[in-house]
Amino acid sequence: MTATETHRAIDAVWRIESARVVAGVARIVRDVGLAEELAQDALVAALEQWPESGVPANPGAWLMAAAKHRAIDLIRRHERYQRKLAELGRDLTAGDAAENREFDAVLDQGDDIDDDLLRLVFTACHPVLSSDARVALTLRLLGGLTTAEIAKAYLVPEATVAQRIVRAKRTLAKANVPFAVPGRAELADRLSSVLEVIYLVFNEGYTASAGSDWTRPALCEEALRLGRVLAELVPAEPEAHGLVALLEIQASRLRARLGPSGEPVLLADQDRARWDQVLIHRGLAALERAASLGGPPGPYVLQAEIAACHARARTVDDTDWIRIAALYHALALRAPSPVVELNRAVAVGMAFGPGMGLALVDEVAEEPSLRDYHLLPSVRGDLLARLGRHAEARAEFERAAALTHNDRERDLLLARAAACVG
């Protein structure tokens, strides 16, 4: 294997194994920032040694062992190493042979990796961090993305992402956030924070908030991967499976959302033959799994039900808009927000006519949080156009185009404005 091929192999292994390595080391050192540094040291060691020695048969175990060795060395040098090692139940005073056995136990690859990953998920998504910081830290620690890759995905300077990650680690350390799965009393609130981060990552990939690309599939793929991991880590949580169901079904449309030149294609105009049926089946299966767990449906399960209505419709005319409107009503009761009300207005407009939809839109039009939200005038323009009020519709589409930061979406809205003639 050439040096170039080895480096590619290392990169691939790191993407797969980095989260497990960081999680495994964090359990020892109880500091996420320090754990990442030690994991990076192991990566550097691989870059130095593997081109000469070759890629190990179990590269993930090699990285884990290398990182844990560094963690143990650090603890031994630390003035409080006895207390730290006592937490692990290790006794370093019994002689060399016993010492080696103790270290072998620490490095045992039979450790419960799933528990470590779950601890890392809840730590990276801790509510003490801002939303931007949670997203950046999650993509770095759990996704294995570099600072440059995160910055590119979100169209922000690399220095900005680096600062967010550094501040996030400092905040976690300063707040003494434990590297642990939250207790039953706070699990629901903490889980909602984790689900929100994954949802935000996916949404940014599904409809990019800025730039020249309508979608960023890499972010969708990363969010979907994280969602699947989380659902397996907390198999008894319906909302985790609901989120996976939603993301699987939404991701099934990604290819159909782009035209030949990368231009946006709206749902009503999409070629449904291009929808990925494998992802749809996976999504519907996840939705069934969520339903089997019982209890009233949460926000992600309800949104997945809405996505399933679209997935089951062979054509746009087959869509069960009445059921979708009812699901949005249930969602508005479960998780009220102006954006949910806006989406409900769209569904009502499709189910019962644009006049009823427009009435609902106008009820939330003065909501301060929607003042600069480009989809408000976009939805209003669509309903006005269907009512034949073309001059008003054109003005709304133009206003929406002025508010969006995505170049592709701006072109689409201006084209819709130009089509409002007569």
UniProtKB/TrEMBL annotation:
One of its GO terms (molecular function) is DNA binding. Keywords: Coiled coil, Sigma factor, Transcription, Transcription regulation. Residues 64-91 form a coiled coil. The keyword Metal-binding does not apply. Belongs to the sigma-70 factor family. ECF subfamily. GO terms for biological process: DNA-templated transcription initiation. Gene3D superfamilies: 1.10.1740.10, Winged helix-like DNA-binding domain superfamily/Winged helix DNA-binding domain (1.10.10.10). This is RNA polymerase, sigma subunit, ECF family. NCBIfam families: sigma70-ECF.
